[in-house]
Structure formats: C-alpha cells, structure tokens
Write a structure and sequence with these properties.
Shape: elongated
Oligomer: single chain
Structural class: alpha+beta
Distance between the termini: 77 Å
C-alpha cells in the first residue's frame, strides 16, 4: 500500500511540474492584460519627450501594435533601461504602464516578445510627432 501511495505522489508531482511548465510558456496577448476598449489617453515617452494620444483613431493605431504582440511570461532579466515608457489611462481613472525594449514590462510583469516591436513603435511615435508639429518625415 505504501509503494502505491509513493508512486501516486511522484506521478502527481510530475504532472504538476509539467502543467506549470506548459502554463508558464503559453502565449499571452496584450489584449488579455489591457482593456483596449476603455483607453482614453496614451502617453508615449521617449528620450524625456512625451507624445500624448487622445483621439480614438490614434489610440487604435497604438493598440494595433500591442494587439499584434505574442508574449510569454518570463522572470525579471535584471536589466535596466527602455526604449519607450508608456502610460495608458482608462475611463475609470485607472492606469497601466508599459516599458518597451527588446521585451516588454506591463504593470511590473515581464514578458518575452515574439520579436522586437521597438521599430514599429518608433515609426508610430515619429509619425504622430510629425503630425502634431505639422512636419513630414522623409
């Protein structure tokens, strides 16, 4: 009887470890974390300059980039720095923050991206900066 109980405990432990590994490595989408429908304002910070998006169409272009991201949870890589710091404001006065570099941090949780999205965000940032300043970027 004790042998059967011992084997049962081992099997349960292995199943729990495998389940945790699968759960930890599942693909997560930003829309699972952030409610795109209730965003009222987005502040994108780059090099101590802030770009503020408040128009629905502008916010939609921003969320399209986030919506294309495929993420996997990861541990803190113990590295500082960022390319973009982003504050997202909602209708209910709540706020989320993102830090985008090779990976992404959303409200303090670290995620590995399927690719670097910094170039996509840079293009959006430059296009809206030019739009707000009335210039065109060649």
């Amino acid at each position: 009887m004790n042998k059967k109980l011992g084997w049962l405990c081992i099997i349960v432990a292995v199943v729990l470890c495998v389940s945790f590994f699968i759960w930890r490595n599942r693909t997560i989408y930003v829309a699972d974390i952030i409610d795109f429908d209730n965003i009222t304002k987005v502040e994108i910070w780059r090099n101590d300059k802030c770009l503020t998006l408040t128009e629905d169409g502008d916010i939609k272009e921003f969320t399209d980039i986030l919506d294309s991201m495929k993420l996997k949870k990861r541990l803190n890589p113990n590295r500082d720095g960022f390319v973009f710091a982003i504050d997202i404001y909602y209708e209910n006065n709540n706020e989320s923050w993102l830090v985008l570099f090779k990976n992404i941090v959303i409200d303090g949780q670290y995620y590995r991206c399927d690719r670097s999205y910094c170039d996509d965000m840079r293009k959006l940032y430059e296009r809206f900066s030019d739009k707000l300043s009335g210039q065109t970027h060649e």
